[in-house]
Design goal:
Number of helices of chain A: 0
Order of helices and strands of chain B: EEEEEEEEEEE
Largest interface: A-B, 24 and 26 residues
Number of strands of chain A: 12
Distance between the termini of chain B: 36 Å
Largest sheet of chain B: 7 strands, mixed
Radius of gyration of chain A: 14 Å
Strand content of chain B: over 45%
Strand content of chain A: over 45%
Oligomer: heterodimer
Distance between the termini of chain A: 41 Å
Chain lengths: 118, 115
């Protein structure tokens, strides 16, 4: 069975601070995919990144960066120089590869509510 | 990424009735997924819908309560049957990305309130 743990229920920082959202996962598969989504107050779910289990390279996209470490089963997300518009709930998710190709549905963590104060 | 629309965007229903939610995608996709997000909670996968086959339900979800149709590669429906207040949630469909089947994009969701 797969599981995603986001231990931080809520984080509050002042604008321009850096903030890291933690994600720890469990899976028995050797091939799997990790995701981060953003859900702003408006409610839509915004895709941020997908990483497969064979690619441990860290990724940077503007102020966002992701640190994937298989040794600790973690896929952490850092926002640099946070802005008020970053305020949202952030979900980490996991899916396992299907034998016939394609990916399975996602298992989500409980989410981290990030509050950026001006 | 695929453009996904859902109808209705929100609804208020009486207990004991049923509501059918539609999910339309602007491109053909093999796999579509239905999720539920209860108030203040995370998302939970209800079922996977592949065109031409029966939907596959996750533990805790049954076809009698959440029948799903997938008549073609761009459309799916989820029905919430015999509703109770506990069914009040946001229901979202998601699809694989066009360029990579490992990316999953979500529709805007249907906010359901059951009185």
């Amino acid at each position: 069975a797969q599981k995603v743990t986001q231990a931080q229920t809520e984080i509050s920082v002042v604008e321009k601070e850096d903030v890291t959202l933690d994600c720890v996962y469990e899976t028995r598969d050797t091939t799997y995919y990790l995701f981060w989504y953003k859900q702003p107050p408006s409610g839509e779910l915004v895709f941020l990144i997908r990483r497969n289990s064979f690619d441990e390279q860290n990724e940077i996209s503007g102020r966002y960066s992701w640190n994937f470490q298989k040794s600790t089963s973690s896929f952490n997300f850092t926002i640099t120089a946070s802005q008020v518009v970053d305020s949202a709930v952030y979900f980490c998710a996991l899916s396992e590869a299907l034998k016939g190709g394609g990916a399975d549905g996602l298992t989500f963590g409980k989410g981290t509510h990030l509050i950026i104060q001006p | 990424s695929a453009v996904i629309s859902q109808k209705p965007s929100r609804d208020i229903c009486q207990r004991g009735t049923s509501l059918t939610i539609q999910c339309q995608v602007d491109s053909q996709v093999t796999m579509m997924f239905w999720y539920r997000q209860q108030p203040g909670q995370s998302l939970t996968l209800i079922a996977t819908a592949n065109q031409g086959s029966e939907a596959t339900y996750e533990s805790g979800f049954v076809i009698d309560k959440f029948p799903i149709s997938r008549p073609n590669l761009t459309f799916s429906t989820l029905t919430v049957s015999n509703m109770s207040p506990e069914d009040s949630s946001i229901y979202l469909c998601s699809v694989e990305g066009e360029l990579s089947y490992n990316e999953q994009f979500f529709g805007p969701g249907t906010r359901l309130t059951v009185l």
